[in-house]
Amino acid sequence: MSFRDLRNFTEMMRALGYPRLISIENFHTPNFMLVSEVLLWLVKRYEPQTDIPADVETEQDRVFFIKAVAQFMATKAHIKLNTKKLYQADGYAVKELLKITSVLYSAMNDKGVERADMSEEDSSKFKFDLGSKIADVKAARQLASEITSKGATLYDLLGKEVELREARAESIARPLEINEAEKVMKIAVDCVLEEVQKTKDMLNNVALDEANLEAKIEKRKLELERSQKRLQTLQSVRPAFMDEYEKIEEQLQKQYSSYLEKFRNLTYLEQLLEDHHRTEQEMFEEAANMLRLTQNRLKEEEQRLLRSESNDDSDIEIQEDEGTDSEEENGQIMKQRTTTEKLLQGRAGARIVGTMQGGDTEEDEDSGDSEIDLDEDEDEEEDDMEDDSMEISPSKSSHRARKPEPLEESDNDF
């Protein structure tokens, strides 16, 4: 069943002039009364002289009605209908009804009688004219078949005319004999008498058959009465196993109710288990995502620490360069000390050089004072040099002792 078939069927029935309005939703459920009414109307439309019983109250009447309609359409219109689908009286029956309506609709279109603004009187006249034309067509078909059959027999007889003409001439020329005529008449009378005797015998036999049939009917009636009495006795007597049957039936009801309850509980528990598995899966995915994020964060921190270590190494190199500069300065100071020591040694040698003259003069005193001043200046310079060396050495040791701070382990962050 399709929507197109239902739509075409309703439109064709409306065009053919069906008095009732057919909706597409009439065939969603079985509707045998509507199907029978439509079938009867289509059959009457095809041939108004048909006599099909319209009683469809019982099941047997419906079956007889469907068979009669199918046989009529098969013999008269050569349309094969599926009786099972027609008996279903639902959407599948529309396809079978569409076979008949399509034939009538195509015939109406071929005649050109249908118009958009046709009134009811014209439609009734058209229906009458269409039925008469269909009857004329069927009569013409029957006459044509009779003409062909009689023409064939006439042709065969004309082919035998040569032989029959001679026999006819001989029989006409031969004189009529009374004895032969009497014999033929006697034979005919005897045949008639035999037939009359047979009919009399049959009448007598009919009487005997009636008596036999009446005896059989009486016998059947007695058997029917006995069977009815036995049925009543059986219905009145309660079987011995009925109590057990009722108990078993009650147990079956209880078992079925418990089965339903357990089945509902089982389905509910299965649903809860599925929800639990789903939540566990979501938690696992969330934990995996968090672990992935922490791993990425730790990688970024490690990269940042590596970059900071590289910067610290560069700072250490700079400090080492400063240490080398301080060493160079210390070297220069040592050189200055050596030069001063040499100068002092030279001056000491010059101080050793002297005269053997006795007595002190003012120049000698001045020279002695100058020598004492030089010694004091040298001592002060040596003290200053030692202080500078002491000030330089701790800075150097501090520069050398400085080490990069240990990096914090990334596992502690995790």
Describe the protein in words.
The chain is an all-alpha fold and 414 residues long. It contains eleven helices and no strands. It has helices spanning 3-16, 32-46, 59-76, 83-88, 91-111, 120-159, 161-173, 178-236, 242-352, 362-401, 410-413.
Features:
414 residues; mainly alpha; 11 helices
User: How much is the average pLDDT?
Assistant: 76
What characterizes the major β-sheet?
none
Annotation, overall tally of beta strands: 0
Which structural class matches the secondary elements? mainly alpha
So what's the overall shape?
A: elongated
Order of helices and strands: HHHHHHHHHHH
The level of helicity is over 70%
The multimeric state of the shown protein is single chain
Poorly predicted ranges: 347-354, 356-372, 388-414
Number of helices: 11
Taken as a percent bin, the fraction of beta residues is under 5%
Distance between the termini: 69 Å
C-alpha Rg (nearest Å): 69 Å
Q: Could you give a short description of this structure?
A:
The protein contains 11 helices and no strands. It is mostly helical.
Write the SSE topology:
Layout: H1 3-16, H2 32-46, H3 59-76, H4 83-88, H5 91-111, H6 120-159, H7 161-173, H8 178-236, H9 242-352, H10 362-401, H11 410-413
Helix pairs in contact: 1-5, 2-3, 2-5, 9-10
